[in-house]
Amino acid sequence: MNQLLNFTAFPHLLVQFVLTLLLSFIIGLELHSYRRSNQQELGFGTTRTFTLIGVAGFVFYNIDSHHQFYLYGLLSLVVFLAIYYYHRSSQHQYSLISLLLALLTYLIAPVLMRLPNWFVILYVVTILLMLSEMPKIRRFSDAFRNAEMVTFSKFLIMAGVILPLLPDRQIASFITISFYQVWLAVIVVSAVSYLSYLAQTYIFKEKGLLLTGLLGGLYSSTATTVVLARRAREMTPTPQITQAIILATAMMYIRLLLLIFFLGHTHVTQQLLLPFLVLVIFSLMASWLASRIPHSPGSATDTLPLSHPLEFKTALIFAFLFVFFAALTTFVIGHYGSEGLRLLSFAVGLTDIDPFILSLLGGKFHISGSQMIAAIIIASGSNNLVKAGYTLVLGSNRYTLAAAAWLVLLFLASMFYVFLFTG
User: Fold this and answer.
1) pLDDT by 10s per residue, the chain, length 423
2) What are phi and psi of 34, to 5 degrees?
3) Are 272 and 256 in contact (CB under 8 A)?
């Protein structure tokens, strides 16, 4: 019985043939399902047709070691598909999906036999997703603005052209980071913000307050808090304002962990994981408890006006702040030691903490690991304090007051952690 259940007991060629048969059948089945769901005529390529195309590709590929029959079969298939497309185009039917799927199905055999198993699965899953999600992809394409392609081109230039050209040497004697580190930080921060921007702009257009807090926190928790606090003045008071502001700050901690990890500071990420995750978990619990506050039904939608994260001006400002904070940190540590670093961390938290934290990690400062962790936690804590101030000043109801109270509590918890565990 064990021998029967052992796949290695079957001839390898038989296993590959069966897999080719099944994968080709699944692709044909998904295409047939897609046509039925969209009330289209069957046209070229039923489930059996695609199965036979996959089988033919497998047989032709294995007939001779030089794969000449396979190439002849591929050429014959291309000619047949070209003739078929010419006939369909005369009837004003220009879709290429069936023809491309036929070619991709014919390629299953060499993909299966020459490439790793994980790639074979990825290959077929990608084809199936392109079919099953085609209506959503079409809607996304219709909504996609031409300017976004220009923006994506900017990102490619920043990451693929500018970054490799920058020297990996220290900028100056008093700036202990390199040009390469500065621009790499710009790219990583811009990438996280850009993904959040795309999600809010194209995927979650009609988003509620809670989703605004989640996605906006990945972009900028401070900007999100300001927008939500102002929104609180214009809408029917609702505890979702409290929830959204708390969620934005919870996402700030996750964003910082991601940025630090992606920039290669694994050890720092591990040290920050426990305190930051504790704050995130308690923030999620506080957000859930806020939903229990009695309230009158009201609107819960919001539109967050985002500036584009991949503008060169924004990138240059971030790079300038990165270098400025690196130089300032060197000066403060050299003249005032660890206590000066803590005061600087607190002051920086009232502004933009990302360039300070990343410059602190990228520089070569004479500080211990615990002092660095303390500086990061202090900066994130004081940033919560300034957000509490924005919430109190811009908001005008008990829900924004509750959010501000939680942000102050997070600040106090951060200071307590620093005092208790980092000395």
Assistant:
1) 344 444 455 677 888 888 888 888 888 887 777 666 665 555 566 788 888 888 999 999 888 888 888 898 889 888 888 887 777 777 666 667 778 888 888 989 888 888 888 888 888 888 888 777 666 666 656 666 666 677 777 778 878 888 888 887 878 776 777 888 888 877 877 777 777 777 766 666 555 677 777 777 777 788 788 878 877 776 666 778 888 889 989 999 998 998 888 878 888 899 999 999 999 999 999 988 877 766 555 544 444 555 555 556 667 777 777 788 878 888 888 888 878 888 999 998 887 788 888 888 877 777 787 888 999 999 999 999 989 988 888 877 777 888 889 999 999 999 999 888 776
2) -60, -45
3) yes
d(CA 31, CA 38): 11
Instruction: Tell me the C-alpha distance between 17 and 55, whole Å.
Output: 8
Element at 405 (helix H, strand E): helix 398-421
Q: What are phi and psi of 300, to 5 degrees?
A: -135, 35
Q: Which residue has the tokens 């003249």?
A: 335
245: closest CA among 412, 409, 411, 399?
A: 399
Residue with tokens 């690991």: 369
Nearest to 84 by CA among 112, 61, 57, 53: 53
**Element housing 170 (H / E):** strand 170-172
Q: How far apart, in whole angstroms, are the C-alpha atoms of residue 141 and residue 352?
A: 35
How far does the chain reach from its first CA to its final CA, in angstroms? 64
- Write the single-letter amino acid at 203: I
